[in-house]
From TrEMBL:
InterPro entries: DUF2905. Keywords: Membrane, Transmembrane, Transmembrane helix. Pfam families: DUF2905 (PF11146). This is DUF2905 domain-containing protein. The keyword Membrane applies. The chain crosses the membrane at residues 43-61.
Amino acid sequence: MLRWLLVVFLALMLISWLQPFLAKLGFGKLPGDLRFRLFGREWFVPLTSTIVLSALVSLISKIL
């Protein structure tokens, strides 16, 4: 259980560090990525970008 929490925490940190680079590539602006304001705060739900990145990582892992 602790291992999974550590992996999720590290993955979230990595994604937050890579987010500016991924935004330059167009991730986060795909159709299906949701941005909305709620309670004075901007929320971002990258549904399509998550699916595309997951498929890319899966493809790379199958090749290697």
